[in-house]
C-alpha cells in the first residue's frame, strides 16, 4: 500500500508577467520505508512540489489540480487545522540552509522541544494535549520533553549533548545545525520526511556524515523519505527510485540504477553526459546547449523541445503521455516506445 | 580531447615558498583593558610551498576554511603575504611596486567565484572589457570595439549584448563576461577561483567546457580552485590538496585519485557520493567538523581527526614534504 500517492499535482504562481507553471501534473508514489529522489536543476519545481505536499506554497502560488493521498486521505481537501496536525508530526521537512531555518534567538534544545510541545506528545502518548493547569502535571511533561530531546540529540550524534541543548544556532557548524534540523524532523516520529537539498550547503565530508546519519535513522524508524537534490551522485547513492524534473514536469522516473545506466529521456541523457565523472578513462563532457526556459512562456508541448537534440515534428503533434519503457521505468517523451 | 600533461615542461611559471597569510583581529582597547582579550590570529595559509609549471592546470582542492581562496589571492598579489616569497617567471615579485606590479598584472588574471559580485553593476559589458584592453595598450577605439566583439563571440555571448549591464545576464553569462575580461589581457596565468561552484549543473558543464577549450587553444597556465572533486578530476593535470592552511598532498590527477596517500585525501575521495574509481569497500566517515584556523592543532593539523595516526609524533611535530616518486608528494608522518 502506498504511503503517499501524488496524482496530477499542479501548482502555479499568478504573477503580473503571467502564469508560471511551477509544478505541472506530476505523479509520484512512495511506500513505507522507501527513499526516492527528486532530481533537477534550479527552477525545475522540485522545492515547490515538496511545499505543495504540505500546502506551504507561498503567495502568489496556488495548487490548482491533482490529489495528494496520504494514508488514504487527500491532503489537498483537508481543513487547515487538520493540516497543522500533519505537518511536523506525520510528515516532517528538512530544509536546505540550516542557518536560515533555525531561529537565531532560541536555543537549540528549545527548538527541538517546540515540535513535541505543539503536537502534544506527552510520555510517548501521541494524544491530545490535556488542558491540565496543574504545575505538577506540567512539570512531568517538561521533564519528559527534555529527556526526549536529549535522546534525540544523542541519536543525531551531536557531540557533548548537554552543552548543545543550551547553545544557540550560531555556535554550531553547518553540519551540526543540519543534525539539529534532523532531530527536529524526527522528534514526533513522522512516517515521511521531505528533505529539500539537505546537504547542498555542506562540505563533502560533512555531507557524507549527514547522509550516513539519514541512512541509519531511516532504517531504524522505517521512515520514508523524498530527497530533493541537484546532485546526481547523492541521488545515485542514496535513493532507491528517482524522478528527474525539468520545467515543472517529471520527465523520467524509475529505479535509480535503471535510470542512471539506461536513461531514456533526452534531458536525463544530456544531464548525465554533462557531468564530470571520476573513472579510469577521462571522458569529455558534453554540455546541453541553451538555457532552462522561462516558465511563463512555455510554447511547446514538451518543455525540453528547444534544447533537445532529438527534437522532431512528432513532438509537436499531440499531448505527450507517460510511457513505461521497462518495468517501473517511465518516460515523458513523444519519441519513446 | 585534451591529453593530460605528463612530462615536466621546464621552468615553473610561478612558485610560492614558505607563504604564510595570517589575518589578525585586534580587540578594542576597552576589551583589552577589561578582559585582557588577546589578538585573534586566523592562520589562513600557514607555510605553503607550491610551484606551477607553464601550460599546466593545477587543481587546488579542499573544504571550506582550508585557505585555498586566500592562497590564490596571495599568489595574485591581491593580499600581501605575512611571510614567504612569490616568484613569477623567475623573478621575485613579493614586494615589488609600480611598473613591475603592472607588468605582472598584465600577465596574471583571475576569475572569481561569485558572478553576481565580481562585475561592476554600473558598467556595460563594453566598458568592463574596455578597461582590460586599455590596460594592455589598445588605444584605438575602433580596434577595441573589434576585439570586444571577437571576445564576446569567443566566450559564447551574443554580440548584440555589448551594451547590456550585468543585471541583465544570467549567472552563467556573467561568468562568461568575467572570462572575456580576463582573456582580453592575453594573460599567461589565470587563477580560476571556484568559477563554477555557484552555477547550475548544466551551466557548469558549459563553462567548464569553455575553460577547457580556451586552454587548449591559448595554452594558459591555470590554478583551478574548487571544492568539487569531480570538477577537479576533470580539469586538472596535477592536484594539490589543502587542509587547514597547509598542503597535505600533491600528485598528478590520475595518480592522486587512484592512489591517495594522505588520510585526509582518502577520506575526501571516499566521501564523494555516487561513483568512485574503484569499488569502494567501506566509506571513511570522519568524526567531527573541520577545526577553525584560529587555533589550529599542534603538530600535524589533521591529527585530531586522523584514523590511522602513527603516534605521539603526530601530536607534536609538523610533517614535512616527502617525495613518493612519480611526482607524488605527501606531508604525513606515516611515510617518513
Structure commentary:
- The complex is a heterodimer of chains A (337) and B (336).
- Chain A is 34% helix and 24% strand.
- Chain A has twelve helices and twelve strands.
- In chain A, a hairpin with a 2-residue loop joins strand 1 (2-15) and strand 2 (18-31).
- In chain A, helix 7 packs parallel to helix 8 (204-221).
- The longest helix of chain A is centred in the middle third of the chain and has 21 residues, at 135-155.
- The two termini of chain A are 28 Å apart.
- Chain B is α/β, with parallel strands linked by helices and 336 residues long.
- Chain B has one domain: P-loop containing nucleotide triphosphate hydrolases (Rossmann fold, 3-Layer(aba) Sandwich), CATH 3.40.50.300.
- Chain B has eleven helices and twelve strands.
- Chains A and B meet through helix 8, helix 9 and helix 11 of A and helix 7, helix 8 and helix 10 of B.
Task: Provide keyphrases for this structure.
heterodimer; A: 337 residues; alpha/beta; Rossmann fold; 2 domains; four-stranded antiparallel sheet; 34% helix; B: Rossmann fold; eight-stranded mixed sheet
Short description:
With 337 residues, chain A is α/β, with parallel strands linked by helices. Chain A has helices at 46-53, 80-86, 98-101, 108-118, 135-155, 161-165, 174-186, 204-221, 232-238, 256-261, 266-274, 314-317, and strands spanning 2-15, 18-31, 35-39, 61-70, 73-74, 91-94, 192-196, 224-229, 241-246, 249-255, 322-326, 329-332. Chain B has one domain: P-loop containing nucleotide triphosphate hydrolases (Rossmann fold, 3-Layer(aba) Sandwich).
What layout of secondary structure does this protein have?
The complex is a heterodimer of chains A (337) and B (336).
Chain A: E1 2-15, E2 18-31, E3 35-39, H1 46-53, E4 61-70, E5 73-74, H2 80-86, E6 91-94, H3 98-101, H4 108-118, H5 135-155, H6 161-165, H7 174-186, E7 192-196, H8 204-221, E8 224-229, H9 232-238, E9 241-246, E10 249-255, H10 256-261, H11 266-274, H12 314-317, E11 322-326, E12 329-332
Parallel strand pairs in A: 3-8, 3-9, 6-7, 7-8
Antiparallel strand pairs in A: 1-2, 1-4, 4-5, 9-10, 10-12, 11-12
Helix pairs in contact in A: 4-5, 4-7, 5-7, 7-8
Chain B: E1 12-25, H1 29-35, E2 40-53, E3 57-61, H2 68-75, E4 83-88, E5 91-92, H3 98-107, E6 108-111, H4 125-136, H5 141-154, H6 171-183, E7 189-193, H7 201-218, E8 221-226, H8 229-235, E9 238-243, E10 246-252, H9 253-258, H10 263-270, H11 312-316, E11 322-323, E12 329-330
Parallel strand pairs in B: 3-8, 3-9, 6-7, 7-8
Antiparallel strand pairs in B: 1-2, 1-4, 4-5, 9-10, 10-12, 11-12
Helix pairs in contact in B: 4-5, 4-6, 5-6, 6-7
Amino acid at each position: 500500500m502506498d504511503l503517499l500517492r501524488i496524482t496530477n499535482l499542479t501548482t502555479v504562481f499568478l504573477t503580473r508577467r503571467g502564469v508560471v507553471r511551477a509544478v505541472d501534473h506530476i505523479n509520484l508514489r512512495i511506500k513505507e520505508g522507501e527513499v526516492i529522489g527528486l532530481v533537477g536543476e534550479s527552477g525545475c519545481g522540485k522545492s515547490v512540489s515538496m511545499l505543495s505536499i504540505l500546502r506551504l506554497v507561498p503567495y502568489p502560488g496556488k495548487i490548482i489540480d491533482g490529489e495528494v493521498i496520504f494514508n488514504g486521505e487527500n491532503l489537498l481537501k483537508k481543513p487547515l487545522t487538520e493540516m497543522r496536525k500533519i505537518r511536523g508530526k506525520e510528515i516532517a521537512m528538512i530544509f536546505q540552509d540550516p542557518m536560515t531555518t533555525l531561529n537565531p534567538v532560541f536555543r537549540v534544545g528549545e527548538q527541538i522541544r517546540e515540535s513535541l510541545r505543539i503536537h502534544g506528545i506527552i510520555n510517548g502518548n501521541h494524544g491530545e494535549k490535556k488542558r491540565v493547569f496543574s504545575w505538577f502535571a506540567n512539570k512531568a511533561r517538561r521533564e519528559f520533553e527534555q529527556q526526549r530531546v536529549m535522546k534525540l540529540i544523542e541519536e543525531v550524534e551531536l557531540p557533548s549533548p548537554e552543552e548543545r541543548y543550551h547553545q544557540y544556532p550560531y555556535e554550531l557548524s553547518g553540519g551540526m545545525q543540519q543534525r539539529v534540523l534532523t532531530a527536529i524532523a524526527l522528534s514526533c516520529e513522522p512516517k515521511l520526511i521531505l528533505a529539500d537539498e539537505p546537504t547542498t550547503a555542506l562540505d563533502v565530508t560533512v555531507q557524507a556524515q549527514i547522509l550516513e546519519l539519514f541512512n541509519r535513522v531511516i532504517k531504524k524508524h522505517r521512515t520514508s523519505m523524498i530527497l530533493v537534490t541537484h546532485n546526481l551522485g547523492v541521488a545515485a547513492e542514496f535513493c532507491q527510485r528517482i524522478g528527474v524534473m525539468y520545467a515543472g514536469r517529471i520527465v523520467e522516473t524509475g529505479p535509480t540504477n535503471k535510470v542512471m545506466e539506461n536513461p531514456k529521456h533526452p534531458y536525463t541523457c544530456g544531464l548525465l553526459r554533462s557531468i564530470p565523472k571520476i573513472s579510469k578513462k577521462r571522458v569529455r563532457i558534453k554540455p546541453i546547449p541553451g538555457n532552462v526556459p522561462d516558465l511563463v512562456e512555455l510554447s511547446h508541448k514538451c518543455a525540453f523541445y528547444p534544447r533537445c537534440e532529438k527534437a522532431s515534428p512528432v513532438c509537436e503533434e499531440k499531448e505527450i503521455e507517460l510511457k513505461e519503457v521497462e518495468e517501473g521505468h517511465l518516460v515523458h517523451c513523444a519519441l519513446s516506445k | 580531447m585534451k591529453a593530460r600533461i605528463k612530462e615536466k615542461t621546464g621552468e615553473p611559471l610561478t612558485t610560492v615558498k614558505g607563504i604564510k597569510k595570517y589575518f589578525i583581529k585586534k580587540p578594542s582597547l576597552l576589551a583589552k583593558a577589561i578582559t585582557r582579550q588577546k589578538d585573534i590570529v586566523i592562520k589562513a595559509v600557514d607555510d605553503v610551498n607550491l610551484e606551477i609549471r607553464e601550460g599546466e592546470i593545477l587543481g587546488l582542492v579542499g573544504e571550506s576554511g582550508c585557505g585555498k581562496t586566500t592562497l590564490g589571492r596571495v599568489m595574485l598579489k591581491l593580499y600581501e603575504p605575512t611571510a614567504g616569497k612569490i616568484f613569477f617567471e623567475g623573478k621575485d615579485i613579493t614586494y615589488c611596486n609600480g611598473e613591475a606590479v603592472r607588468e605582472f598584472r598584465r600577465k596574471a588574471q583571475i576569475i572569481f567565484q561569485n558572478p553576481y559580485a565580481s562585475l561592476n553593476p554600473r558598467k556595460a559589458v563594453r566598458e568592463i572589457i574596455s578597461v582590460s584592453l586599455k590596460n594592455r595598450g589598445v588605444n584605438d577605439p575602433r580596434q577595441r570595439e573589434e576585439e570586444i566583439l571577437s571576445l564576446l563571440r569567443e566566450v559564447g555571448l551574443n554580440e548584440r549584448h555589448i551594451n547590456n549591464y550585468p543585471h541583465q545576464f544570467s549567472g552563467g553569462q556573467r561568468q562568461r563576461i568575467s572570462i572575456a575580461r580576463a582573456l582580453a589581457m592575453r594573460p599567461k596565468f589565470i587563477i580560476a577561483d571556484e568559477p563554477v561552484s555557484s552555477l547550475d549543473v548544466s551551466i557548469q558543464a558549459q563553462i567548464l567546457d569553455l575553460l577547457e577549450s580556451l586552454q587548449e587553444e591559448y595554452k594558459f597556465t591555470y590554478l583551478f580552485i574548487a571544492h568539487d572533486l569531480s570538477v577537479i578530476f576533470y580539469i586538472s593535470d596535477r592536484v594539490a590538496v589543502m587542509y587547514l592552511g597547509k598542503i597535505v598532498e600533491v600528485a598528478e590527477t590520475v595518480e592522486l585519485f587512484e592512489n591517495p596517500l594522505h588520510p585526509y585525501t582518502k577520506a575526501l575521495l571516499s566521501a564523494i557520493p555516487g561513483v568512485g574509481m574503484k569499488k569502494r569497500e567501506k566509506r571513511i566517515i570522519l568524526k567531527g567538523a573541520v577545526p577553525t584556523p584560529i587555533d589550529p592543532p599542534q603538530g600535524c593539523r589533521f591529527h585530531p581527526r586522523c584514523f590511522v595516526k602513527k603516534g605521539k609524533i603526530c601530536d607534536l611535530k609538523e610533517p614535512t614534504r616527502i617525495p613518493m616518486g612519480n611526482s607524488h608528494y605527501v606531508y604525513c608522518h606515516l611515510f617518513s
